[in-house]
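debug: dumping io for the single-chain case to check the tokenizer round-trip. Nothing else runs in this session.
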Amino acid sequence: MFHMNNEEAVIRAFILPSKRDRHLEFLTSPKGRAKFIAQLGHFKHLNPKFAFSIAGSESNPVSLQQLLVAKGAGPKC
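debug: decoded output
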């Protein structure tokens, strides 16, 4: 049975299709995984169909969870 880890699931769900294989390759080594994680704060390859702005007043964990669940995320978002 195939088991997908969290990082792989995030890449498959939210990274632009043209960049997925490259970022999945980063996960094959500890150095590559660290590089991938380090660049997330300035990441440019997220699929824009999943991006939206939020108000500063909504940028706390409780509000973010409520917003994500309202948009269809599961209870463990």
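debug: round-trip ok. Residues 24 and 36 are 9 Å apart (CA to CA).
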